[in-house]
Amino acid sequence: MSDHRFQPETLAIHAGQIPDAATGARALPIYQTTSFVFDSAEHAASLFNLATFGNVYSRLSNPTVAALEERVAALEGGRAGLASASGMASEAMALMTLLQQGDHVVAAGALYGGSVSMLAVNLKKLGIDTTFVDAASVEAFAAAMQPNTRAVFAESLGNPSLQLLDIAAVAEVAHAHGVPMIVDNTVPSPFLCNPIRFGADIVVHSATKYLAGHGTTLGGVMVESGQFPWDNGKFPGMTEPSVGYHGVKFFETFGDFGFTMRARMETLRVYGAALSPMSAWQILQGTETLHVRMERHCRNALAVAQFLRSHPRVSWVNYPGLPDHPQHALVAKQMRVVDGVPGASGLLAFGVQGGLAAGVKFIEAAQFMSHLANIGDTRTLIIHPASTTHRQLDDAQQRAAGVLPDMVRMSVGIEHIDDILWDIDQALSKAGE
Amino acid sequence: MTDDISTLRRILRDCRTIAVVGLSPEWHRPSHFAAKYLQAHGYRVIPVNPRCAEILGERCYPDLLEIPESVDMVDVFRRTDDVLAVAHQAIEIKARCLWQQLGVVNLEADRLAREAGMDSVMNRCVKIEHARLFGGLHWAGVNTRVISATRPH
Question: pTM of the predicted model, to two decimals?
Fold first, then answer.
């Protein structure tokens, strides 16, 4: 006999949260407490030695935060999750647990700017080098691997490049070198894509985006697949007694969730980027409707892409959900089907005729589409990268980063599609005046 | 073999006396960790190890047949090849469950145990499964796969 296999729609609502043992509360209680009492000195010792599982202090673990960790782990089809204060913090938890001075990372070049900074500036400062490669070239990943490479890092769907990663092919490159593949899966969300299915070993999320969906709360989650062979000789920190925590051998003691335990006890505990229970609760209010929202985001974004493509004031449209997108076969392979076509999430980019000045005018003419830097909100969000996020770069540098002068990035929300198209149309008219 | 949540829960609820075959006296060995955890959660642990007289405060027996009281579960920390002999003894002493630890998978022993009307679990750690199904592991962010509208008990 085997257990029933629950679908993501059910996991988004139930995983990680059964009625409260103490009170029977059906909705998730907020355990707003820093600390948890020990039953005895022996119980305390046993918890500190990790011989028994339980809560000690909310910087390490908290029952409300644990519900979010297990829910995202379940949605990703992973073995265990670790939440932290933001998506950037989760990325840091994964990389700083994995890497040490002298190590090397191979990363996709067109990453979210914050991720580029972490690798190229912050980790570089600690003696960890990164080679950035073209995310679309599996050969470039393979060519950049070095004897001291200890991780491959990329986004499943790039932001703002909207470039898809061939997860299986790049994971194969990583595994051939005995190192884990880390995938930032923020843009598709675990409803549309599960990188672990294609060979990823660690998945990171900014839960601030689609997982929460409401644009109110920062948070991040790292998920471990439970399938990486940490005893392959390249990761003594997983197999040797931990200098950072009581001499525990994390892989021998915890097996397929050893990396998550090590990230929790060695990295989160020390750097302190813990997620607050209140934030975990707020994020989970959104996660319960993830599947309903993502379907609508995909449907609206496809309709917007088709509308823009036929609009006389638009010079080009980039949306991976369009059937003639150059990577459409990969979209079909890696993304969940929504309305009979591959769901490509809510991000798209397009060019306003008239260049930089027209792009700026378009943004300023929008009535309810919000001009801000977030993505994955229920609201439609727009930004003109050349005049905001990338304005410190000159024209050539912007083009190298994939930012064209006329480019508008849109995170299509779940308002009524007719209203979204109306606002786009009237703003395009004003941009052309 | 058995691997579903409701059966594993029933086994872990009903089996209160657990003979741990191959229990090590060394504190850092996985068998010692697991047995200590079981004791802390109210189980009676009976060590089976011919090289020791006493482990974790309990008298140690050379094999299952020497244990003078009834045993509910036989938890096996031995190489896969050694499990068959343990299974024969487990059937003889009328244990209710044969549990082969993480990494231990003897299909013949599994078949014998089931034919004798016993529950049979393979390639699972009794400590991790207890923590998974009765709460503790959830606090470590692990995907327990438990989906339920009733309280844990």
Answer: 0.93
